[in-house]
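User: Here's a chain of 204 residues. Predict its fold as tokens.
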Amino acid sequence: MSKTDKRIDAYIAKAPLFAKPILTYIRSVVHEGAPECEETLKWGHPAFSQNGLLCGMLSFKEYCALHFWKGSLFIDALKGDEGAAAQLGKLTSVNDLPPKAVFLSCVKRAVELNAAGTKLPRAAAKPKAPIRLPPDLRRAIDENAKARQTYDGFSPSHRREYVEWITESKQASTRSRRIAQAVEWMAEGKPRNWKYMKTPAKGQ
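Assistant: Prediction complete.
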């Protein structure tokens, strides 16, 4: 049996007049599709949970929104069904919601995913821009064989640390000073943040 939360009653009561029927309808359909779900508040907005979050609804001054937490795993497949989708953006009336059958299928699919323990895939990390050695730093390194050898042997992260340190200089004098310091450290085989690296204890 579904569990309701009086805080959701209060949320709907305080919502703009246009939003009340939208929120009430969403609430009823979610409970129909997930009879064992529980209501709660997440980030100050009504949410429905069963073995994890299923979906949430929000009310703004001019529109409402409905979001399925794992909707990215099944929404695309429903877009061709009468043109409806669960992640609908701005809802200004009940008519902006998908047909009830489609809406119920979304709720039931969300329940199934949670019951199976399905997790959302992690977003792929954005690839970093290629490391481009500034011409002035390149010339300085090329003039010092030890520095060049060290730089060539660095990992991409160590190379990036030096390049970013140089390129973030705002004044020419600062840039020149940093380039000279970088070459000196690289000639000694040191990465940019060598001061903060742990050094082996004596006898190890």
